[in-house]
């Protein structure tokens, strides 16, 4: 793809990639800005995804079901394999003499039309569920602030979810594309540090003052098996976006070496704070760790309120990252180019992005126990996109350059993560069946 000086594609005609059956796959140019960001900025985009307020739940969703040794080892191993899988995708960004700025473009180029459509479907289901989950998370943070100052229970979680969706929509209308986040990435980092530091310090204080904790894995033998599988799925979800080519599209040349710098930045500067708050939360509260750490800690009301507000605001920024592939598709599909704040373009964002986030918000309020469904979509989309497809695409693209041992390694990854995907899907379905007996639509959790 040729790129103009402003970072946008130079051609208005779609590229065509021909698969083995000579069926054309049309690859449209993008209406968004590309090839303009430093590796440092892209590193902060990736780090924002890792250190979203989801990190406050990993003590409960990862450490409690796994325990100390498997939990710690699992996080370390998940870090390594996630960095490896992401590096495989990053190295294919300029494969075949052209730049692949979308995940589905790369899959379509390597496999053909069917893989193009399947990858697109898996990715957008995954991102839709992540976006919806972020709105639930933001609503939960707002409700936590409300609960600190009032015990009348007049305001329910669905109300806060609706408010969160509205704020997310306002932000989406103001930021035209992923590269335009710039300063907001720094703001997001400040907010992340605020709630991580507060949770860490208050958990340390509670842990020092608390009696001996119970670190045993709760549940029956059968339930432990399923929760262990679910926790393993959460491990890989913690490190992966499912949209690496879309993020890499924003980076300056040379795109591969710069993206590798961004990935190393993500898995050093970004991972350490996540480790710290996850481990300290489990150490302080053991098996009673809440799925949202700030609701467990004891401390000054104003400090906890500040941390929850920071979690809410950072979630609004993080959601925009995971919604950007949908925004890019819509803007490209309807030819939204030129000044992002022209009347036409601004009106389009208000109507279309506002409508998309309205659907997200409605689903979030209707099913606030969406985490169960996210485990299912993670099993059927995050595993295939991040691990199975990454290894198989790399093997297919580099087949003439790989030794027999290297090919065997990639096949082992494909089969292992294929089995993990099936097991995680079964575990998620069981969890949905169990929780559906407890929860109801528009629940106030």
From TrEMBL:
InterPro entries in UniProt: AA_transpt_TM (IPR013057)
Its membrane topology: Multi-pass membrane protein
Subcellular location: Endomembrane system
Cellular component GO terms held in the UniProt record: endomembrane system
Gene Ontology molecular functions: symporter activity
Domain Amino acid transporter transmembrane: 37-429
Keywords: Amino-acid transport, Auxin signaling pathway, Membrane, Symport, Transmembrane, Transmembrane helix, Transport
Membrane-spanning residues: 68-89, 124-145, 157-176, 183-204, 224-242, 263-285, 305-330, 350-370, 376-394, 414-433
Tree of life domain: Eukaryota
UniProt-listed GO biological process terms: amino acid transport; auxin-activated signaling pathway
One Pfam family per UniProt: Aa_trans
Keyword set includes Transmembrane: yes
UniProt xrefs under PANTHER family: OS05G0424000 PROTEIN-RELATED
Function: Carrier protein involved in proton-driven auxin influx. Mediates the formation of auxin gradient from developing leaves (site of auxin biosynthesis) to tips by contributing to the loading of auxin in vascular tissues and facilitating acropetal (base to tip) auxin transport within inner tissues of the root apex, and basipetal (tip to base) auxin transport within outer tissues of the root apex. May be involved in lateral roots and nodules formation.
Family statement: Belongs to the amino acid/polyamine transporter 2 family. Amino acid/auxin permease (AAAP) (TC 2.A.18.1) subfamily.
Protein name listed in UniProt: Amino acid transporter transmembrane domain-containing protein
Organism: Salix udensis
Lineage: Eukaryota, Viridiplantae, Streptophyta, Embryophyta, Tracheophyta
């Amino acid at each position: 793809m040729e790129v103009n000086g402003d970072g946008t594609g130079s051609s208005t005609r779609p590229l065509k990639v021909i698969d083995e059956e000579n069926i054309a796959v049309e690859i449209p140019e993008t209406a968004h800005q590309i090839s303009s960001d430093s590796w440092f900025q892209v590193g902060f985009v990736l780090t924002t995804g890792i250190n979203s307020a989801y990190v406050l739940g990993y003590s409960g969703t990862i450490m409690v079901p796994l325990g100390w040794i498997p939990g710690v080892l699992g996080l370390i191993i998940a870090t390594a394999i996630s960095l490896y899988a992401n590096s495989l995708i990053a190295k294919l960004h300029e494969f075949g003499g052209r730049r692949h700025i979308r995940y589905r473009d790369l899959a379509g180029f390597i496999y053909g039309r069917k893989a193009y459509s399947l990858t697109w479907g898996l990715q957008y289901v995954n991102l839709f569920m992540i976006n919806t989950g972020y709105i639930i998370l933001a609503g939960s943070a707002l409700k936590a602030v409300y609960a600190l100052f009032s015990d009348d229970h007049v305001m329910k979680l669905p109300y806060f979810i609706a408010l969160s969706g509205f704020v997310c929509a306002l932000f989406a209308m103001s930021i035209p594309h992923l590269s335009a986040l710039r300063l907001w990435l720094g703001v997001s980092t400040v907010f992340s540090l605020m709630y991580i530091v507060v949770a860490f310090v208050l958990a340390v204080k509670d842990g020092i003052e608390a009696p001996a904790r119970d670190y045993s894995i709760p549940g029956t033998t059968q339930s432990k098996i399923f929760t262990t599988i679910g926790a393993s799925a959460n491990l890989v979800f913690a490190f992966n976006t499912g949209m690496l080519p879309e993020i890499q599209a924003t980076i300056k040349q040379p795109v591969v070496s710069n993206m590798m710098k961004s990935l190393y930045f993500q898995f050093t500067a970004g991972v350490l704070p996540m480790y710290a708050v996850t481990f300290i939360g489990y150490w302080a509260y053991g098996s009673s760790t809440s799925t949202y750490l700030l609701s467990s800690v004891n401390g000054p009301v104003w400090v906890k309120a500040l941390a929850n507000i920071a979690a809410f605001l950072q979630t609004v920024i993080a959601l925009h990252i995971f919604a950007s592939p949908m925004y890019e598709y819509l803007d490209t599909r309807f030819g939204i180019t030129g000044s992002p704040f022209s009347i036409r373009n601004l009106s389009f964002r208000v109507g279309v992005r506002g409508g998309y986030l309205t659907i997200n918000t409605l689903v979030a309020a209707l099913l606030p126990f969406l985490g169960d469904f996210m485990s299912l979509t993670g099993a059927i989309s995050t595993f295939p996109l991040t691990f199975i497809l990454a290894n198989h695409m790399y093997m297919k693209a580099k087949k003439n350059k790989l030794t027999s041992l290297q090919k065997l390694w990639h096949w082992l990854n494909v089969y292992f993560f294929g089995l993990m995907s099936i097991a995680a899907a079964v575990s998620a379905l069981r969890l949905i069946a169990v929780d559906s007996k407890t929860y109801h639509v528009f629940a106030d959790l």
